[in-house]
Fold this sequence. Notes:
Layout lengths: L8 H23 L6 E2 L18 E5 L9 E5 L10 H13 L3 E6 L10 H15 L1 H4 L6 E6 L1 H11 L22 E4 L12 H8 L5 H6 L13 E6 L8 H12 L4 E6 L18 H11 L8 E10 L2 E2 L2 E8 L8 E6 L2 E4 L5 E2 L1 E9 L13 E2 L7 E5 L3 E8 L3
Parallel strand pairs: 3-4, 3-5, 5-6, 6-7, 7-8, 9-18
Antiparallel strand pairs: 1-2, 2-4, 9-10, 9-13, 9-14, 11-12, 11-15, 15-16, 15-17
Helix pairs in contact: 3-5
Amino acid sequence: xxxxxxxxxxxxxxxxVVATAWLSCxxxxxxxxxxxxILLWTDGAPGAVGTEVADQPTIRIHRPAKDNTGAAVVVCxxxxxxxxxxxxxxHQVAKxxxxxxxxxxxxxxxxxxxxxxPAPLTDVQRAIRYVRSHAAELGVSPKRVGxxxxxxxxxxxxxxxxHFDGGKSDAGDPIDRVSCRPDFxxxxxxxxxxxxxxxxxxxxxxxxxxxxxxxxMRNLSNETQVTERTPPAFLFHTxxxxxxxxxxxxxxxxxxxxxxxxxxxxxxxxxxxxxGLAPGDPVVGTWKAQLHGWMQTNGFxxxxxxxxxxxxxxxxxxxxxxxxxTFTPLGNARAPVASAMISNGxxxxxxxxxxxxxxNDVVVRTLGAVEQRPTIDDARVISPLNGGxxxxxxxxxxxxxxxxxxx
Length: 407
């Protein structure tokens, strides 16, 4: 280890060289920590201008040690398309995914100043294809492969969510035969627009140069590229972020709403740019729990089928005026729980967020008195008073009529 001490200028320079060399070796060793890197192209990436490490996009696959859900997420670290924050926006995130049974795949993609668009997009498309085509050996469901990106990596994740293809069935390379469309996207304080006043100019310059074609700028302003085929999105940002303003996340969320793409947005009041997992922050750090809940609710943590359920609920012969009904699948803690409001005795759940096919535990709660008058009663459970309820949901549509007693 290099220890600073009083030196002449020449000695100080020599010592600095030694220290720099030591640090470079340490960084080189650190780069090899973790899963072995896998080359996305063994014979050179498309458009590569050399054969150095920077010319070779790779992935490192962190697999959960236990409780594998079969879901996988390709993680794109941020860094303004100039560097990669591979630690706190890469491997740390992949390890967190492992803790909830999800395979985390950290992508090292090509970036400026050596590479510009479309190299980063080509790399993330290939990474998604790789995971999907190797799903069986990785213990992954090919129908539950998502993408996550932080900052400029969020721009990349939103780009592959709006610029994808179904693969080429006649391709010589089997990896190229599968789709690169993510099944879901997770965008953390993302760069989204390259044209708006709140755009992150540095990311734009590094990605498409100083004087880009205006049409290319618009094409890569991903709030303008959302369609009905864009995968569901989870976004989080902070209002204090001055590096990448929160308007980026908002416009993408609004575009998802416009095109009826399932989406969830969390905007935290405090917090700077580049939070990563936000360790030690009791508020912003909750994004992980929110994300886990969103993934479960949307069925990304289990291979299940869902079905529409509608019906009626009466209590002591009267329609339940205001309440909730919840369907919890039995024997599968990762499967989504379905919940609906009951109004004047009726409820309805569409198939996309309906009950999981199979046996469900059913709980009914009242939010007020049965009589048509105001109440200050707390919400309370009704159904367990009848010894518990179960319901076997079947494919297609289901009808359930419950006749409960208050006592």
